[in-house]
Design brief:
The complex is a heterotetramer, with two copies of chain A (266 residues) and two copies of chain B (330 residues). Chain A contains six helices and 14 strands. Chain A is of the alpha/beta class. The C terminus of chain A is likely disordered. Classes of the chains: A alpha/beta (266), B alpha/beta (330). Chains B and C meet through helix 1, strand 11, strand 13, helix 7 and helix 8 of B and helix 1, strand 11, strand 13, helix 7 and helix 8 of C. The complex binds flavin-adenine dinucleotide (2 copies), flavin mononucleotide (2 copies) and FE2/S2 (inorganic) cluster (2 copies).
């Protein structure tokens, strides 16, 4: 079963910025862009990560240091063994004319999507946003590709300002297709709104605390619809977003409790 | 037909002999005074953290849903991997992660405000007094259709670190303590195979006033080791075994309890196909819990099993599941 | 590599880092003074009724073979179905059918006259005195490499009809009684999960002089019901669960025993693939029993597992299985 | 798994003689001639039976009353449910020019073999022996088929005398092919000898006490080679018969003990 643990040696580590690296792993599983795997550091923990690429010779994940697990993972070196399970969930559709919109580490799954769109010969454009250049994975690659426009809040790369600035132009510049988004939830909700108004479809990749990835623990169920983000997501279309009442609220933590106040945890 | 080949009772419902015009069959069952439109119950710990999740399972065809087991305090549970599928079932060591009773009460209230499907609230505690307190505190705030008492949690006072479920006397005492605080709400005790005699434990619970029994909790625990990194894969090293692998153990557990007690049984364990649910009913289950089956069969397993059971009733000319319950005892 | 990712010990044998020129690895293990050319042992009750059958398994690659458990008297066992495969393992209720000790002694002698592979003779009895008598009578006639004491048979004196295996004191007394008649032949006690604490039972056996432990016997018992004729399928209604379904339970049993005792363990249960055997070794098994795996994987499973283990040793640059035994305990 | 129990209603019962019937069962499994199934009478026992036919619409077994189980099975009527498992073991090869030799109930699996040979358009002849006409299944059918010669010890049907009488002629009448035998062990051993001398191959179906049918219980292992008749048999060729030291001895009983004296139990 694909959900059984397999451990694999890390093939290669690519450092993008301090605290932001990609890891190439043996291609032991098939996946679609937007799907995720879990990575196990034996003796530490196991956490979900979207795939940022799937080539014949390797799987790729891209990790940003935000806490104890990711910090340890970023210490890993080629040859170190990590556990891998997946792929889990549902990904993006491959649609010509798609506009990819990423926020920070959210650009990682979009990189895989862009690979697949290229392989399928489908045109797309990509608005890659981040708070600052150091939060942007694959910056060099993104800088080179003419279909990509970079936005940073502080102007340290590309255009200064939120990624949504470029969105109106992008949505107006072609026939209605799909907005594929990944990043912080407020950005995703803004994309949803913009797409709705422009008559575009939206496919947006959300995150919630996850423990099992297989739809059992209940950790990632969305209030309102009960939809399991690990099985029916993480990429949701408009229909799947219907009925959800917790957009923008703080996420349920590992106990299942939702922190009563404050901004969303990510 | 020779009397050795089949009894009349068996004949009455053999799929291939319809006698009389088929009555429209009903899957409804009475469980400790509660009517369930279907015998299928969502097992505790699976999709049971929030009202919306429970509602979704109810909409999928469950006759009742059970919450994740909650204790007096919020618990984050064990690190991951906490749930580990393998080819024949899965191991889980979630570590009783739960938001705490007060939070859960709010979820229960939200569920009940929107859904008529009976809800079973599951509680656990560290000791007898804790069980009573948990029951009291929860039932001050909400009125579930049934209260399920998960006694498969470690009993710190036990000689071998065994769960309460291993000790018939402890189970009886917990049952009595919870009943005293139950405000008339029926109480089911959730048993584990990890005991010298399930029949003995079941009788102790019944004698102490239990209104129903749920059997079985996950089995073992078990362990799986990664042969490359040479470590147990679960963060907790060991975890309870559930899913297809344990069906024969659940069938036998229900069988034994059906002979030992008169209160109804929520037969749980290893149901991954519609036929499995019928096995548990024939062994004596009034209701049938489904947990891991949701992983292997999807939420569709509820509707598929309801359809299968209805079809069996229709073909056998049986009006309800009453004729099938315990029928394998001959 | 971060210390959290892998220890040196893990690194030393990771398949992908060969250090130094590979030594030709040996699969030989020492088990209670007996040398086995391979750690794989034919489990009791499977292909174990006759010398020729045991020889065939030895030729297939087993490092030792265990006879069917024999008692003082011949037993025909239960009617059929007595062995019932299902998708995840099988149930068996053979009912300790055996030709009796005297007949078995003749088979053992015939085996030993033709085959150098160590033979483990398994005995059972109805009570403590019976165990001593069985050991005495068998060892008057033949000299197996090891005597295995199957304590998973019903103890008629027990409160819940539990097997001796459920009672640490009884196991200790049986061990001592058999040891007293064992004429210096090492004694392994075959344990069952059906007990409050396997570690406790294992220690009791060790303290009473056991030279090795075999764990685990089949689990449960369990039951499967035919939904059409509405009866338990096994003639005996219930039967022990074995095969792939129980691997996690066997791994954990060996793990627990490895921490509790110093005598070697024949880890048995659910080995159906070569990797499974390695899991048991990493958990602490010195030898690995294979029973039901012969059904799902054929006798070829012995050779395939030997090849897999030899390959692992070669790739890890390890001279023997000693470096892997219990290695998952970190 | 095919070895899992399934219960089926008996479709039809065909009485050949007193104490000798065929049962048609739903075609829930595929099988080759010579393979066997087990039949479960709930509450009674479960016993092995060769298939005597496999048609698109039905499986067939043919049963002779010899003891408690077979007597009860012979009371079964259409619609009664029996449990079925299998197919187990290895059957006969389909070879043109085969000489089928049956003794009593041993003619049952040969009937299935004859069906398959016919379907494959392969020529064969069949020597059908029995102690008396009442022991011969399918007598009417056998009487009609010109390729069949019947022998009974008492002359109550066909030629009087043992079936082996006709064998020498049959083996001499065509190019060397295969003798397919089923019946009492002394007959099978005589066939083996005759085939060996005539330079024919032999495929012979043996019986031993069986409990599991799947090679585990050890009940049916042959002394000398350890061959499991339920897995590597029941049909053995010369190579598979090699090394066996128990031909003609009393069979091991349900305890595994071989009765010390007397003739073979069947
Ligand atoms: C479907 C999905 C895809 C993801 N893809 C990526 C990716 O491609 N790259 C990347 O760097 N990160 C990704 N993440 C987030 C990643 O899982 C967290 O950054 C990581 O778990 C943090 O662990 P920590 O111990 O370092 O931080 P912690 O200090 O434990 O937590 C920091 C924050 O990370 C989040 N988090 C922690 N544990 C989990 C968990 N078990 N499940 C979900 N979120 C958690 C929470 O928001 C938490 O507030 C993804 C998460 C999900 C659910
Ligand atoms: C591979 C195989 C194919 C067979 N095919 C047929 C067939 O097509 N038709 C048919 O009528 N019979 C067949 N038999 C024999 C049939 O299994 C026995 O006649 C039946 O089991 C007798 O049971 P009973 O209770 O009626 O008789 P019992 O009184 O129990 O036994 C009578 C004799 O039947 C044999 N027998 C009993 N139990 C078994 C058993 N479990 N396994 C093997 N032999 C047993 C023994 O030789 C015994 O001495 C076959 C047996 C085998 C092994
Ligand atoms: C992930 C998971 C979590 C569980 N948590 C609980 C729990 O909190 N309380 C409880 O009583 N049982 C719990 N169980 C046990 C189930 O309710 C059920 O008894 C067991 O899994 C057997 O049924 P199944 O094979 O259908 O899963 C859990 C099971 C799983 C798989
Ligand atoms: C058909 C069968 C018969 C068995 N008979 C015995 C027996 O006589 N004595 C014994 O100690 N164990 C007996 N066992 C248990 C096995 O030796 C073994 O402990 C158990 O089956 C678990 O291993 P496995 O999963 O590899 O089969 C039997 C098991 C099977 C399947
Ligand atoms: S992570 Fe467990 S249900 Fe989604
Ligand atoms: S009948 Fe059990 S091994 Fe052949």
């Amino acid at each position: 079963m694909a959900d059984t643990m397999q451990t694999v040696p890390i093939l290669e580590v690519i450092a993008h910025h301090a605290g932001l690296k990609s890891f190439l792993l043996p291609p032991v599983l098939e996946a679609e862009p937007g799907q995720f795997v879990t990575v196990w550091l034996p003796g530490v923990d196991e956490k979900p990560f979207a795939l940022s690429g799937r080539r014949p010779h390797a799987l790729e994940i891209t990790v940003k240091a935000v806490g104890p697990f990711t910090r340890r993972l970023l210490e890993a070196r080629p040859g170190d063994r990590v556990g891998l399970r997946g792929p889990f969930g549902r990904g993006f559709s491959l649609t010509g004319g798609a506009v990819l919109v990423g926020g920070g580490i959210g650009n990682a799954p979009l990189r895989f999507l862009a690979q697949r769109l290229d392989e399928a010969g489908l045109p797309f454009s990509w608005l890659a946003g981040a708070r600052q250049a150091a939060d942007l994975p694959f910056e060099a690659y993104l800088q080179r590709d003419p279909r990509v426009r970079i936005f940073t809040d502080d102007g340290s790369a590309g255009t200064a300002g939120p990624v949504t600035v470029g969105l109106a132009t992008a949505l107006a510049s072609g026939p209605a297709a799909v907005v594929c988004g990944a990043g912080p939830e407020p950005m995703l909700l803004a994309l949803r709104e913009a797409a709705r108004r422009a008559g575009w479809r939206a496919e947006l990749s959300f995150e919630r605390y996850m423990k099992c990835g297989i739809g059992l623990c209940g950790q990632c169920c969305l209030d309102g619809s009960g939809l399991r983000l690990c099985v029916e997501g993480p990429v949701l279309d408009e229909a799947a977003m219907q009925g959800v009442t917790e957009w923008g609220l703080p996420h349920r933590g590992p106990s299942g409790r939702r922190p009563s106040a404050g901004p969303p945890s990510r | 037909m020779s009397p050795h080949l089949s009894t009349d009772r068996h004949r009455a419902a053999a799929g291939d002999r319809v006698t009389g015009p088929p009555t429209p069959p009903s899957l409804a069952v009475r469980l400790a005074g509660v009517t369930l439109a279907s015998p299928l119950v969502l097992a505790s710990g699976v999709m049971g953290l929030s009202a919306s999740s429970l509602e979704r399972v109810a909409a999928a065809g469950a006759g009742a849903v059970t919450t994740k087991s909650c204790g007096l305090e919020e618990r984050q549970g064990h690190p991951c991997p906490a749930i580990l599928p393998f080819a024949h079932g899965l191991l889980n060591a979630v570590g009783l992660a739960n938001p705490g009773l007060d939070e859960m009460a709010a979820e229960i209230a939200a569920f009940q405000a929107r859904t008529p499907v009976p809800l079973i609230a599951s509680i656990f505690a560290k000791n007898e007094a804790g069980f009573a307190e948990a029951a009291g505190r929860l039932l001050e705030r909400v009125t579930p259709a049934l209260l399920e008492v998960n006694v498969s949690c470690p009993n710190v006072a036990s000689e071998f670190g065994q769960p309460f479920a291993a000790d018939a006397d402890a189970c009886g005492r917990i049952t009595a303590a919870v009943k005293a605080r139950a405000r008339g709400i029926p109480v089911a005790v959730k048993l584990s195979l990890q005991c010298p005699s399930l029949a003995h434990v079941g009788r102790a619970c019944q004698d102490a006033g239990a209104d129903a029994l749920t059997a079985i909790n996950s089995v073992g625990p078990g362990m799986l080791i990664d042969i490359d990194v040479r470590r147990p894969i679960l963060a907790n090293q060991v975890g309870g075994l559930s899913g297809a692998a344990i069906l024969p153990l659940a069938v036998r557990a229900v069988w034994d309890l059906f002979q030992a007690v008169t209160i109804p049984i929520i037969g749980t364990g290893g149901v991954t196909r519609p036929e499995d649910a019928l096995q548990l009913i024939l062994a004596g289950a009034t209701a049938v819990g489904i947990g891991t089956g949701i992983y292997t069969g999807g939420l569709e397993l509820f509707a598929a099993t309801n359809a299968f059971l209805a079809d069996r009733l229709a073909h056998g000319g049986l009006p309800s599941l009453d004729a099938l319950r315990g029928a394998a005892h001959g």
